[in-house]
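Practice problem: predict the structure.
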Amino acid sequence: MIFNPRHVLLILTAAVVFPACAAHAGNAPDETANVNSNANKPVAAAPTADALLALDKQATEAYIKGDAKFFESFLSEKFVMHEGGARLSKTDAVKMISGVKCEVKEGWTLTEPQMSKVDNDTYVLSYRSNMEGSCTADGKTKKLPSPVRAATVWARNGERWQAAFHGENLIVDPKAASAADKQGEPKKDDKAAANTNTAAASAPANPITNDLMAAENSVWEAWKNKDAKKVEDLTAKEIAFVNIFGTYFANKAEAIKDWTGATCDVTSFTLTNGAATAVSPTVGILTLTGTVTGTCGGKDISAQKIYGNSVYVKEGDAWKWAFGFNSP
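Answer:
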């Protein structure tokens, strides 16, 4: 599924992992209640990775055809994504899609689906997309980067599954990021300039924003300190995430090993622009901007902005980090 023409057209192979590697959009209370209206009934069957991948394939086909109307019902009213540093709502995303025209060769594929559970009504699907072609947006035509690692957060709405978040990153070797920049990959300022015609709605204030930002700061602090025990305590039992290099970490053991390893050496960080949305009473998506002082992969990332998207699930009175996707 390619919701984001700027990500499709102008993927930036920048540097950072985790908080650099570590996600929601508000909706009316009655709609939130609708997602969980069967709380007292038997738990509905969980989706399968193949079933969710089939939905993502439908969305990809609709995107290629420029069928923005398809996304009116496909996206949750709570849908959120990051685009060029801006937090987009469902309305913003549909408008953006309506202005994109693509020419894609036959034979494109979505493969390697991996599913992670947030709770009974929320799942994350990550997959690999390979396609050859180009898309035009804002009068600029760019070749599609490929392959990319994508992820979609799926929320149950009655009998349907709707997308509540989508992101995708070009799959690159972190060591080759600098070389890619020299070969003509767009700089962040170029990307920002390309988005000047996309008006993003201001994120609505949500009561859970402060709670999720506090939780996020704690997770980043544990990452900075390479404190595996703290990361263990702050995260859900089942977690997964995609970093900005398109690397997918499928479980808690893999993620903690990476976050507490030697990849990054960070001395400080700052999180700003936090905005949260309640997908349900117990699931929220937080979007934010992070800056750090330090290095990752031997590269100074002090000037790099990281657009984080973190999914949280509430366990008792505590919000636990369950999934993250980074946007450069």
